[in-house]
Amino acid sequence: MITFILNNKTIKTSEHSGMTLLDFVRYEQRLTGTKIGCREGDCGACTILVGTLNKDETISYQSITSCISPLGNAHGKHIVTIEGTNLKNKLTATQEAMKANYATQCGFCTPGFVVALTGFALSYSENNYNNALNAISGNICRCTGYKSIEKAAHQVVEKLKHYNSKTNFKWLIENKFIPEYFESIPKRLKDIEIKDLNQPKGKYVSGGTDLYVQQADHLADNDVHLIAEKEYLKGIAIENGNCTIGTNSTVSDLWNHSKLNSILPNLRTHLKLVSSEQIRNMASLGGNLVNASPIGDMTIFFLALNSTITIINSEGKERTVALKNFYQAYKTYDLNADELLKSIHFKLPNKNAFFNFEKVCKRTHLDIASVNSAIYISVENDTITEAHVSLGGVAAIPKYLHETSAFLTGKSLTSETILEANERLQKEIAPISDVRGSSDYKRLLGRQLFFAHFTELFPKQFTLNDFVQHA
Amino acid sequence: MLKDTSNNILKTKLNAVSKDLKESIKNLDSYTHVRGESLYVDDVNIRQGTFHAVVFDSPKAHGKIKHIDYSKAEALEGVIRIFTYKDIPGKNEIGGIIPDEPLFAENEVHFWGMPIALIVAETEFIARKARDLIDINIEDLPVITTAKEAKTKGSFINAPRSFSLGDTENAYKDCDFIFEGETFSNGQEHLYIEAQGAYAEPLENGNIKITSSTQGPTAVQKTVAQVLGVSMHKIEIDVTRLGGGFGGKEDQATPWAVMAALATHHLNQSVKLILNRHDDLRMTGKRHPYESSYKIGLSKDLKILAYEAEFLQNSGAAADLSPAIAERTLFHATNSYYVPNVTTKVLSCKTNLPPNTAFRGFGGPQGMFVIESAIAKAASEIGVSPRQIQEANLLDENDTFSYGQIAKQVEAKTSWNSAKNIFNIEALERDIENFNRTNKAFKKGLALMPIAFGISFTNTPMNHARALVHIYLDGSIGISTAAVEMGQGVNTKMMQIAAEVFSVPIEKTKIETTNTTRVANTSPSAASSTADLNGKATLMACNSLLERLKKVASEDLNAPEDSISLKDECVYTNGEKSKLSWTDLINKAMLKRVALTENAHYATPEIHFDKTKEKGHPFAYHVYGTAIVITTVDCTRGTYEFDSVKIVHDYGKSMSKGIDLGQVEGALAQGIGWMTMEEIAYNKDGRLLSNALSTYKIPDLFSVPKNVEVIPLETKGHELAILKSKAVGEPPLMYGIGAYFAIQNAIKAYNPNYNLKFHAPMTPEKVLMSLYQN
Predict the structure, then answer these.
(1) Which one of A15, A170, A276, B591 is most buried, counting C-beta atoms within 10 A?
(2) Nearest-CA residue of chain B relative to A272?
(3) Contact, B734 vs B365, CB < 8 A?
(4) What is the pLDDT of residues A145-160, one digit of tens each?
(5) FAD-binding PCMH-type domain location, by residue (chain A) (predicted)?
(6) What separation in angstroms does the CA of A363 have from each of A370, B635, B774?
(7) Which fold has domain B1-38+413-459+614-774?
(8) Mean pLDDT of all residues in chain A?
(9) Chain A interface includes B122 (CB < 8 A)
(10) Would you list the DSSP string of B675-699?
(11) What pLDDT was estimated at residue B6?
């Protein structure tokens, strides 16, 4: 039985764990405030909150798009829909902010925005305007042009300025952000005995953010094996200059990891280019790697970190493989049917090493790259001592640029080196024309993003003019 | 000096805007919207035993159906029945303007996504599974995807239309400059977040009630009756509200409602049909792509003396609303400029795309993009700023439009000059020059975009509406009109009118669902005219009731009728409060057997148009405004951001400044999306490639302009606008056209070799390729 609390009500259901949470709340529970816009996580109209009980008995709430989330992942959680945020006969602070600023027109996307902003109020992230906007980065509105919604977000941030203790929801209840019953949730969740779901063999699903876009009907109709809660696939550890990340970690887990952010100071700037907050809250890193998309953002990211991955089979036997050798052909990679990716390892950049990630798509955020690229480069006394460059969208696999990386290593860091490296890069890639751009465009963009790494990382040394003609 | 003064003006104006926003009426639907309690089609409670339907559509853009095998699908457990054209009791015909569109394909398919059958099952999931089990064999026929190709092959929807004023042939002789060119503007997906859908229920005597997500309830009713072969009074259409329409549900909400009704008719059971997003994207038409050519002639002092344009409209596989949309392209071909000699021609080209349809602006934006392109090209060739040409040709009072209407209450120059002064255009341009001089990797560009948009259905007979107003015994008021609420705030405006006439709190008024049994034979909610037409009808109904009630009060208070007024739920005589309250008055009226219900009919006066001469006075009035768009292009990556859009807009006397500002901001974002990132892609076989939200991108929170400033133009308003509050739905979309030219100007600042291109949208791909074009 899948057991969880839905708003203020405890649910025990024997529904198929692969059905979407969206269908369950809308059609099984008749909670129609959660809307269907796209069923692929791209519009946010179905945003709901997932509350997870922490070891210290606090709760962490995160927003997700329920359309690409398996019902089984709700097991042991507090699920909050728009109805679960409503107060009796009055508006919450978030709802009031939306109303007062004319931030709702046709109203169809509105519950998604309200839930996401309520999630922001409940979250432990710092209260500022940028974080409030990040919270609604996965919500699309076709009516307002967003300026009124920005004002509403601003009003929410202003109200939250008086909220100090982020682990205690009393203030939020007193100030009409959430209904009273939220106070009882930690205890109620603790009282529900959460046993591991008795799961059938079937398709492995972690966050589901890609699988449910591709094959939601199939997953709803067949056995799935949910792995999002598997402890042995979790966690981020930093030891002796090395980082190990469990493949179940989400993009948000990286976002929220303070130590990782201090070592990679631009991490959040880079991750902000990866989908939306709702999706980052669900998308597992392992899922991104085995999706094997030639433009998988996190894959490109880890390729340039020269990562290795640990693979575990059903008998618990482990092996490791360099990520750059993992991919063989389009969507083909070195993994057997009974194997799972367990963890990702990479060496953290030291003081001489630099990392950068670039991505260009039609829309800067919540879009799939036309081309993306990452670089890890170590420079001592103007000499490149180590370099790893990856480029996505230019080959059948997420591309580690072996020759370009090898060429850079040992060279002095000059514009001549970089221009010559680009010549190598151009020979290593074979982009095709598709809906994300023509092959000529991707080739040019590959060059430009390669140059961008150097203007970003060494702004005192290089400008765009050092590499290209115009201006 | 100049800068400081103007910034003070701007500050004062912005403060006033912000004060107005706090004070003006909020959208009255927002309470249920923010709580998730507003009801859309898919939220309406359904009857027990309701069936669910999924459409089976053509997997080819053009071909002969050789064979279809439904047997495996029919055998699937839970499948109730599959309907095809053979099950249609009436006509297999849904075309609104021209009868050229079947509900279901018979022997041929004409576009990829063309409905062939309806699968009805116990659940939507089963119906979808059954769809995968249908085998179809289609013999390919040649596929046309572009308008030009259709023109070459002589494939048209109807006869071309042409407007002319003066004599262009002769006028070119007097021109110092003549330029010719071609332009392309792509289609645009509506992307209402609520997909198309309908829910049909059987009533007694074979009557059917349909809850539909439509902008045009009467069109749905009429078409259902036609397809079922029953009379219209047996069909009731009810619309609660729409999760966005933008024109996409004016004509194209109809087929889904008809299909649900057809299944209900046969099965005597409720049937729900809600398209999933992929089906919606694949099966429905979009804004029309246009391939156009122009010839513009100017004098030395930059006056446009002659302008010719030929517009090739990619209409898709059936007429839908294309002829009307083509007509509006001609109406707006010269935007807000006076051109004494004009010849324009539009050809509605029949292709194998889904029938393209209404989309906010209705062909107007496509026309305006061409003349703006012509001006940009001329400016670049002559070596002046485009704004010099724009400014030299703005409309004046009493100028003649190419369709013969004399321009009155013209605000083209006032809005242009206000924008220039309030926002200090010289300072803005200077700042951009400085920025571009000192920055290598980023360049800024600016463009001005004036607009003039005609308000009314261009088809004169459609400009009418009715309202039915009840006053209940306790003094509360129910209003029914043909207006469909889809986010534009028309419900609020209707309630405002009644509340104002009777001087009661707005909470005492209620808008009923839009229903064909209460208000019949209606025009769709479209053409920016919904509030004007339905509002005027509501006002008339309320005023008639008021007169009647004044008579009652006059008798009761023994005071002359003209001394009676209503204020704050009380009756006043000669400005003095009487003992009679609003509720008392209603009760007295009831006892005196006075009718407390009124039905009023409004038809826009003054308008007319003669299609044989292509001359007349089609518009009640025009809406004007000017936008300044500023963009920054990242010359490394080819991406761009909009720093700001600064607008002076002609609202007339706005009824709700907050609601109207929302219309401007929303339309602007949609216009910018059309001109920049929204890219519809079909392959040569006519298959939609941008077939999901992952491949078709509309503006998100981070891609809209950082700063949008909208200053109302001070005007008297217009008598034909409801309470002098001018229509605001469509006009501001065309400010977005400025985005295209702003980006182009930034590219030019980086790459002096760049040849101007007039091929929208200006995607990051085009920008990068242009930056590095040799």
Answers:
(1) A276
(2) B702
(3) yes
(4) 999 999 999 999 999 9
(5) 164-351
(6) 10, 16, 26
(7) Aldehyde Oxidoreductase; domain 4 (3.30.365)
(8) 95
(9) no
(10) HTT----B-TTS-BSS-STTTS---
(11) 60
Using the beta-carbon criterion (under 8 Å), do B36 and A468 form an inter-chain contact?
Answer: no
A213 and A141 assigned to the same domain: yes
Q: Does B247 touch chain A (CB under 8 A)?
A: no
Last residue of a domain, one of A182, A200, A228: A228
* φ, ψ of residue B295 in degrees (nearest 5): -140, 120
Say if A54 falls within a structural domain: yes
Q: In this model, does residue A215 exceed pLDDT 60?
A: yes
Q: Which fold has domain B41-142+190-283?
A: Aldehyde Oxidoreductase; domain 3 (3.90.1170)
pLDDT for the residue numbered B2: 45
User: What is the pLDDT at residue B1?
Assistant: 38
Indicate the residue of A110, A150, A455 with minimum beta-carbon distance to B636. Answer: A455
Residue A440 to residue B769, Cβ atoms within 8 A: yes
Q: For residues B450 and B425, what is the distance between their CA atoms, to the nearest angstrom?
A: 14
Chain A interface includes B35 (CB < 8 A): yes
Domain count, chain A: 2
* pLDDT tens track for A14-33: 999 999 999 999 999 999 99
Residue of B598, B614, B678, B730 with catalytic role: B730
Residue of A24, A102, A434, A450 for testing the chain B interface, max B β-carbons within 10 Å? A102
- Whether the CB-CB separation of B639 and B459 falls below 8 Å is answered with no
CATH code of domain B464-603: 3.30.365.10
Q: What is the pLDDT of residue B8?
A: 87
User: Which run of H or E residues covers position B138?
Assistant: strand B135-140
Residues in chain A with CB shorter than 8 Å from the CB of B50 are none
> A-B interface: how many C-beta pairs under 8 angstroms?
252
Compute the distance between CA of residue B150 and CA of residue B146 in angstroms, rounded to an integer: 6
Q: Which helix or strand (DSSP H or E) is residue A340 part of?
A: strand A339-347
Q: Is residue A2 part of a domain?
A: yes
CB-count exposure of residue B229 (10 Å: 0-12, 13-18, 19+)? exposed
Is B730 marked active-site?
yes
Q: Which residues of chain B have pLDDT under 70?
A: 1-6
Biggest CA pair distance of chain B: 87
In three-state secondary structure terms, B643 is strand
Q: Quick one: which of B709, B707, B708, B713 has its CA closest to B649?
A: B713
Q: B residues 661-720 near A, CB within 8 Å?
A: 661-662, 665-670, 677, 679, 681, 689-690, 692-695, 697-704, 708
Please indicate whether, in this complex, the C-beta atoms of A107 and B128 are within 8 angstroms of each other: no
> Is the CB of B244 less than 8 angstroms away from the CB of A143?
yes
- The answer to whether B621 and B409 have CB atoms below 8 angstroms apart is yes
Q: Which residues pair with B309 in a beta bridge?
A: B294, B344
A51 has a pLDDT exceeding 80: yes
Residues of A in contact with B125 (CB under 8 A): 217, 220-221
Partner-chain residue, chosen from A105, A438, A455, that has the shortest CB–CB distance to B662: A105
Residue A100: give the domain boundaries: 1-228
Q: Using one digit for the tens of pLDDT, what is the confidence trace for B326-372? A: 999 999 999 999 999 999 999 999 999 999 999 999 999 999 999 99
Q: Which residues of B touch A45 (CB under 8 A)?
A: 193
Does the beta-carbon distance from B193 to A220 stay under 8 Å? no
Closest by Cβ to A39, choosing from B241, B276, B763 = B276
> Tokens 């060429």 label which residue?
A407
**CA-CA distance, B55 to B351, in Å (whole number)?**
22
- C-beta of residue B344 within 8 angstroms of C-beta of residue B311: yes
Q: How far is A58 from chain B (nearest CA, A)?
A: 26
Mutate to test the interface with A, among B23, B27, B30 (most CBs of A within 10 A): B30
Say whether residue B750 is in contact with chain A using an 8 A CB cutoff.
yes
